[in-house]
Specification:
By secondary structure, this protein is of the alpha+beta class. Helices cover 66% and strands 13% of the residues. It contains 18 helices and 14 strands. The protein has helices at residues 2-27, 29-60, 67-88, 93-143, 146-164, 168-182, 189-216, 220-308, 327-333, 337-340, 353-362, 408-476, 486-518, 531-541, 543-549, 568-585, 619-622, 642-652, and strands at 312-317, 322-325, 367-376, 382-394, 397-406, 480-481, 484-485, 528-529, 552-556, 564-565, 592-600, 605-612, 656-662, 666-674. It has a five-stranded antiparallel beta sheet, with helices on both faces. Helix 2 (29-60) packs across helix 8 and helix 14 packs across helix 16 (568-585). The two termini are 90 Å apart. 21% of the residues are buried.
């Protein structure tokens, strides 16, 4: 059947191709081209006749404007050049020979136009001199005496004869008369101008006539005739060639028709055989259609089951290409079945295809254990999946089916649970640390009170002993105490005792601040307090951290701030949290941390402003800073509760927290309190 089908097609295609080629050649575009070129030559003849008419009018003085000469000449030149370029572009010898003739025609036209330019120039000079000669001669004759008038009349007669026939004899007579007239010394300047114009006319008029004869003698018409003759010969040859192609076209068309009739008779014989085969196949097709109907019903039931499942149910062939894709898979991976089917399954999950192949080669088990992997959505996002695999065959082909579940929510819940567990552990540590701090502060306070008491007693003892020791010094001179001379000891002992007292007082103040910071909240903690004092206590609590983190700490407190209502311990907690966050943002001890208290203009509010030159906060995190458990310092032990608690404490005081930051430049945190707030109550702090 294959050998029968391709040979007729090849023969018919060859005959149709031959007919097409012969038809194209018989159309003979060269004839149309010849007609177009002949029309161009006729236009050139008409333009040349117009040009010669205008030249003769110019010579006769009847054409006062040379624009028509210029336009006609340029048109002739453009037509001849176009004709030359079209013929010269051909590769065949005959058109190229005609291109040479067209080039000769263009060159002749160019020479004629050049002569016309000379003619226009000389003719304009001649006409100007003739007009001047006539005008000056007419004026001189009116005022001349009889002798001069006779000479002028004779000169005018000779000039008229010369203009009518510029022969050598008339030119010689005119020059002699001009010489006689110029020999008279008594002549005026007008006579000299008249003589100069006369001589110029004698010189230019022969040139004008010679140029006119040269223009007329250009072989333009002969060039055109030669080109037309060549075009006729070329057209006749093309016409004969087209006749040959038309005859060949007819013969090939007859051959094609005969071959088609032969193929039609052959087709009828095969049609009878096909009808008999069709009758036998019709019954077989009916049985197959019934089987396909049953198969479609079964597939529809299976598809309804798979599409109703929330899990992704997909099947792949032995090459890893997808052959089935349910609605759950389209929702999970973000790609419709029309786009996914037939593509590689490796686009949608990692490390499953190798496992499918290994299990298919190792065993014929239908059910495999559940495994976990990573899925890949259409936009490239990865997510955790749980896969249950099975294998099946159809004929000699092996397939694998996977039921895939998205376990992102489960993983997220597990991560949240672990995070909350860690946060609870951290909160428990902080609670234990607070209890420990209170106990340590109490234990430190007892020996420190003894030091304070003994430092005061030592100061009184030293003061009373100074008189006795001074008397001893005056009586016996220099002596030593504890290995030191009395003079040196008298100057430094009092300072040492005062330093011991000051150090003990500082320990007492730090212990008091720690106990004050860790003391539980009471319902009565709503008295008036100084914001500056709360800030100073907070700074003292973190002074050791400040000294370790930065060498440039600045504190500026506005002494004119009004007192606030609320719990000063909670305000200290807010300031401590802001200071700790600012210190954590510093990456170098040369960076600055500053604390400022001030009153906001025309707002009835005061604020504590903590400014750092640290790493800054990205814009997408600014709005989340006060969310519970949100932290960017999780790796360093951050719980995400400090600013959330601080924001809650600020709301309890009727205030708010503001943050402004520029990544890489630093952060400014403001705790803003109202001045005339309502009486504060700890019960309002429900958070």
């Amino acid at each position: 059947m294959t050998g029968f089908s391709w040979k007729p097609r090849l023969i018919v295609a060859a005959l149709v191709g031959a007919i097409t080629y012969l038809w194209i050649q018989s159309a003979n575009p060269e004839l149309e081209r010849r007609n177009r070129l002949q029309a161009t030559l006729r236009i050139i003849e008409l333009r040349d006749a117009e040009l010669m008419r205008d030249i003769l009018l110019t010579r006769a003085g009847l054409l006062t404007n040379y624009d028509a000469l210029t336009r006609t000449g340029q048109s002739l030149l453009n037509l001849s050049r176009g004709l030359r370029d079209e013929l010269a572009a051909s590769v065949s010898p005959e058109p190229r020979r005609m291109g040479d003739l067209a080039g000769a025609l263009s060159a002749a036209l160019q020479d004629r136009l050049t002569q016309i330019e000379y003619l226009k120039s000389d003719n304009a000079l001649l006409r100007n001199s003739v007009m001047s000669f006539n005008e000056i001669g007419r004026n001189l004759q009116l005022s001349a005496n009889p002798a001069d008038s006779a000479r002028l009349t004779n000169l005018w007669r000779l000039m008229a004869g010369f203009l009518e026939n510029a022969g050598p004899e008339s030119a010689r007579e005119l020059e002699q008369e001009l010489e006689r007239l110029s020999g008279l010394n008594s002549q005026s300047d007008d006579y000299q101008v008249l003589i100069a114009h006369g001589r110029l006319i004698v010189e230019v008029l022969p040139k004008v006539d010679a140029a006119l004869q040269s223009i007329i003698g250009q072989p333009i018409l002969s060039r055109i005739d030669d080109l037309q003759h060549a075009l006729r010969l070329y057209g006749d040859g093309a016409e004969r060639r087209a006749e040959h192609f038309r005859l060949a076209l007819y013969l090939v068309a007859v051959l094609l028709a005969a071959y088609l009739l032969y193929q039609f008779a052959l087709l009828r014989s095969h049609t009878l055989a096909l009808r008999r085969a069709h009758a036998s196949l019709k019954q077989e097709i009916g049985e197959r259609l019934q089987a396909e109907s049953w198969l479609r019903e079964s597939e529809a039931r299976l598809r309804a089951i798979t599409d109703s499942a929330r899990e992704a149910i997909v099947s792949v062939d032995a090459g890893g290409n997808l052959v089935s894709w349910n609605r759950g898979a389209a929702l999970m991976f973000g790609e419709a079945a029309e786009e996914a089917l037939g593509t590689s399954s490796q686009r949608f999950w990692m490390a499953i295809q190798a496992q499918l192949q290994a299990e298919a080669d190792a065993t014929d088990r239908m059910i495999n254990p559940i495994t976990e992997s990573l899925g890949i959505r259409r936009d490239g996002e990865t997510f955790p999946i749980e896969v249950s695999l099975s294998h099946w065959t159809r004929g000699e082909e092996r397939f694998s089916t996977a039921i895939i579940r998205d376990i992102s929510a489960r993983r997220q819940l597990e991560a949240v649970a672990r995070q909350q567990e860690l946060q609870l552990i951290q909160a428990n540590k902080m609670t234990a640390l607070g209890t420990l701090v209170s106990g340590v502060a109490h234990e430190i306070n007892n020996p420190n009170q003894l030091i304070l008491l003994n430092a005061g007693l030592l100061a009184d003892i030293w003061s009373d002993a100074l008189e006795i020791l001074d008397d001893r010094y005056r009586a016996g001179g220099e002596f030593s105490l504890a290995g030191l001379s009395y003079t040196e000891l008298r100057a430094s002992a009092g300072v040492l005792i005062d330093d011991i007292g000051d150090g003990a007082k500082r320990i007492e103040r730090i212990v008091a601040d720690l106990k004050h910071y860790a003391r539980p909240q009471t319902e009565q903690a709503g008295a008036a307090f100084s914001l500056n004092e709360a800030v100073e206590r907070a700074v003292r609590l973190v002074r050791h951290v400040i000294a370790r983190k930065t060498d440039h700490f600045e504190i500026r407190l506005d002494s004119a701030l009004p007192p606030l209502q609320g719990d000063p311990r909670q305000v200290e907690q807010v300031v401590v949290n802001l200071l700790i966050n600012g210190l954590d943002a510093l990456t170098d001890t040369d960076q600055t941390l500053g604390v400022t208290t001030r009153r906001l203009d025309d707002e009835g509010e005061v604020c504590v402003e903590v400014m750092d030159q640290g790493c800054g906060i990205s814009p997408e995190h600014i709005q989340q800073l006060c969310d519970p458990f949100f932290t960017t310092k999780q790796a360093c032990g951050g719980t995400g509760l400090g600013l959330a608690i601080s924001a809650s404490l600020m709301r309890a005081h009727g205030g708010r927290l503001n943050f402004s930051s520029e990544p890489g430049r630093g952060t400014v945190a403001q705790a803003i309190f109202p001045v005339n707030s309502k009486p504060w109550s700890a019960a309002e702090h429900a958070d």
